Amino acid sequence: MNQTALAVASDPGALRLASAPVDLNERLSQAFKNVVATAPAALREPARDHFAKAGKHLRGKLAYSAACLYGASPETAISWATAVELLHNASLVHDDLCDKDSKRRGQRTTFRQYGEAAAVCLGDFLIAKAYEYGACASSATLPHLSASIATLVGGQAAEFCNAGYPDWATYEQIAIDKTAPLLSLTILGAAAIQQQPVPVTPIERYFDHAALCFQMINDIRNFSGSDGAESPCSDLANCRPNAVIACFTGTLPKNLNARFSIWADRIRAGEIIADAVETREWWHRLCASDAFSDTAQRLHFHFNMATGELIKLPTGLQGVLSTLNQWLALELTKTQHCMSTRGDK
């Protein structure tokens, strides 16, 4: 990590976040209760269970702070924060369905508890409510919500539409498309509420790098079982896009790479169930490779690139985003422990 990155990441006073109200978490929680109360009867219980355990509200806090920065009233800012959080939660419900995940935030996913149809419908309902709250903030946010969803679902679909295991370039594009849109949405939509001009390209560059950090940190933690998945190494067992695996396959000889890709295609197609013996073989090969150290180097590179883009942004916007960058820096250091314990799996 370079010196500039360390200074920005470690000094909370270096860049100050636009103040969020102490009760923002409470206000978001109340908004979610209102959403549950207005859900169709068949979705009320799944919606209530989904919101039973709160997330970090990271995107909502960014949306609120950005809206306040650009001159929106507190109530308008809360509406915008709620819209962003609802869209994020819709993406989680649909992502769990696509990946057939059983756990989210320590509890059963909507897909696992209520079935595929309920997960599709709940996610769709939350998208509809996101538009409602976005419109309450300002109709100018709606094109941004739409563009964000379109890019996000394209990234999600790309996970399942590629033959063979994705190479590094493909992995990066999938990770950016799945993660960056909801992050940049917080700022671009907030600016649209007050019709404020923003440096769109630098903002998107920052969030592209930050999104890759998000996903790579989660991918590394998947191998230690600290990412919330039901079992460690689930990405390997299910052949999902993962930064560590993409680094690993990139170093394999052609014959082994082809063998891995065929195995991955058959698992994803449901033709075979992941065999513990074969999965463990690939796990041992991966551990013997430089995949973890290569991934760590790429993670540090993208963090430094994100920080470099951050300090080019207007001062007020730097303040909004500094907490996110500090959080990424903290999570980055935590991954070092995850990698140090990989040999015990």
Architecture overview:
There is one protein chain. With 345 residues, the chain is an all-alpha fold. It has one domain (3-344): Farnesyl Diphosphate Synthase (Orthogonal Bundle), CATH 1.10.600. It is built from 16 helices and 2 strands. The protein has helices spanning 3-10, 24-37, 41-50, 58-69, 74-99, 110-114, 116-137, 142-158, 168-193, 200-222, 234-238, 243-250, 254-268, 276-288, 291-310, 315-340; strands at residues 103-104, 107-108. A hairpin with a 2-residue loop joins strand 1 (103-104) and strand 2. Helix 9 packs across helix 10 (200-222). The model is unreliable at 1-22 (pLDDT under 50).
Number of helical segments with 4 or more residues:
16
Provide the number of structural domains. Answer: 1
Q: What percentage of residues falls in helices of 4 or more residues?
A: over 70%
Structural Rg: 20 Å
- Side by side, the strands of the main sheet go 1-2
- Characterize the overall form: globular
Q: Please, what is the average pLDDT?
A: 88
Q: What name does CATH use for the topology?
A: Farnesyl Diphosphate Synthase
Query: By CATH's scheme, which homologous superfamily applies?
Result: Farnesyl Diphosphate Synthase
Determine the structural class based on helices, strands and strand pairing. Answer: mainly alpha
The unreliable regions are 1-22
Number of strands: 2
**Strand portion, in percent?**
under 5%
Main sheet summary:
2 strands, antiparallel
The CATH architecture comes to Orthogonal Bundle
Head-to-tail CA distance between termini: 28 Å
CATH class: Mainly Alpha
Notable traits:
16 helices; two-stranded antiparallel sheet; disordered N terminus; 345 residues; 72% helix; mainly alpha; Farnesyl Diphosphate Synthase
